[in-house]
Amino acid sequence: MPIVVNLDIMLEKRQMKSNELAEIIGITTANLSILKTGKAKAIRFSTLEAICEALDCQPADILEYVEP
C-alpha cells in the first residue's frame, strides 16, 4: 500500500507509549495498533486531529505517500 503510517516514529520522538496515546485520544489500544501497523483501511479526521494534538505534530508527520 502506498500510504505508510509513521505513528511509531512520532511516538518515539515524543517519548510516549501507545497505551498512553490511546487513552489520551479515547480509542482502544487494539484500534491504535491496527492504525500503527498500517492495517487500517480508513481513519476518521477527528481521530487524526486528536493524534496530531496529542503528539503536537502535523498529519504529514504521521501519514506518508510512497510511490509503489
Which short descriptors sum up this protein?
56% helix, mainly alpha, globular, 2 strands, 68 residues
Q: Span between N and C termini? A: 7 Å
* Count of individual helical segments: 5
Please write the string of helix (H) and strand (E) elements. EHHHHHE
Radius of gyration in whole Å, from Cα?
11 Å
Q: How many beta-strand elements? A: 2
β content, as a range? 5-15%
What overall geometry do the principal axes of the alpha carbons give? globular
Average of per-residue pLDDT values: 95
> How would a crystallographer describe the biggest sheet?
2 strands, antiparallel
* Strand order within the widest beta sheet: 1-2
Q: Spans with pLDDT under 50 lasting ≥5 residues?
A: none
Overview of this protein structure:
- The protein is globular, with a radius of gyration of 11 Å.
- It has helices at 7-13, 18-25, 29-36, 45-55, 59-62, and strands spanning 3-5, 63-65.
- It is built from five helices and two strands.
- The longest helix is centred in the C-terminal third of the chain and has 11 residues, at 45-55.
- The mean pLDDT is 95.
- Strands 1-2 form a two-stranded antiparallel sheet.
- 56% of the residues lie in helices and 9% in strands.
- The protein has 68 residues and is mainly α.
